[in-house]
Amino acid sequence: MISYITRYIEKHLASGVKARELFAWSAYDFANSGFSTVVITAVFSAYFVEVVAGNANWATLLWTTALSVSYLMIMFTAPVLGIIADTRRLKKKFLLIATLGCGCFTLMLSLIGEGDVFAALILIVMANLFFGTGENLIAAFLPELARSESLGKVSGWGWAIGYLGGLFTLIVCLLYLTSGSVEDASVSYTMVITGIIFLLASTPTFVFLEERGKKNGSCKTDFPSSYSMLKGSLHNLNKFSDLKVFLICLIVYQAGIQAVITLAAVYANQAMGFSTADTISLILVVNITASVGAFMFGQVEDRVGHKTTLHLTLIGWLLTVVIAYLSLDRTLFWIAANLAGLCLGASQSAGRALVAYFSPSNKEGEFLGLWGLAVKCSSIIGPITYGSIVWLSKGDHRHALLSLAIFFILGMIILAKVNVQRGRKSAIRASRETKLG
């Protein structure tokens, strides 16, 4: 049975790539999903608004501003690090630094208590900076691992395993919370659980994953030179018109997705009256549906196309925010949350796979760095929009959620302009020109 699974997996991998490398790569998605799920989505966000900031009207905006600062820092560093990683084959070393940084700052979040607003903001900015950097670097391995015709499937496997990691971390945290005597004090110690799981679960990545690609010793790798290369990359996007349009599309629709991810627990707590344990239970189930969505859509994505998959999930996201807005009881809200889970796994997987599909060989880190740039830009726009509406409306989370629908509508309009076949041909042509040069 194991040998059959191994053969099936390796059929979709690039020449020379073994199944254990795919599992090692997926192990990182498993590891870092605990951070995004527990810290950003399920626990610490609501803990910050309710306990650390004392339910102030500005608390949600301050939380989203802190995350936006970290995303802005990533926007300036990630593409440059991608270029350096490509030219010097340093993806794995940079990934190790990012992992240790995120893990350590997550552990330090356990020290945050009531009123520690400034300290909480500093720690979350640093933890999320390292997390986002690692997220971009691990994505740059995808084109090295998968065959071009199997990018959607392999990306879906990674996201599916990743959501299982978030699920595992949530279960451990929920067991701890329900056994604790003081809930608010216990919440901070879930950061210890999350940090330790992240560091331990990512170990196989650094043991078994190989770094491929040609080392280019002629390229300068200082930051000024790298920014010049980044400027050139952005200028050269004119040669990759479909990638350029899709990156704009991604910024728009991901703004809505990132707002939902970032503020799901805050909305559940403030608008629906969920306790911390209730919210973890909700996000736990959503992680199961997200894993199912990533795996299920990953199996059909390469057949029906990345664009069709994305279009379907954007319709699903639009329905999600409308249903959640109309939810006055928990039953309807649970339906909306699980619909979001199905769409989340599929949309994240398809977006990463499509950028990889448009990437010329030996430019994976650079182009996936642009993907990270777009995602982080959306991570600023979406949550800040939500937080600003909550602040201006003096705490109206329902209308803030409904406002996210515009991002999904605009995303579908822009997506219609992307020609996948033309975009792939541009990548292949650029790869051939690089080899001839």
Could you give a short account of the major beta sheet?
none
* The first-level CATH class name: Mainly Alpha
Principal-axis shape equals globular
Name the helicity range. Answer: over 70%
What does this structure look like?
The protein has a single domain (22-207, 236-436), classed as MFS general substrate transporter like domains (Growth Hormone, Chain: A). The protein is globular. Helix 3 (44-52) packs across helix 12. It is mostly helical and 437 residues long. The protein has helices spanning 2-11, 19-42, 44-52, 59-88, 91-108, 117-139, 142-145, 151-179, 183-201, 203-208, 223-236, 241-270, 276-304, 306-326, 330-357, 364-392, 397-402, 405-415, 420-436. The model has no long low-confidence stretch (mean pLDDT 84). Helix content is 82%, strand content 0%.
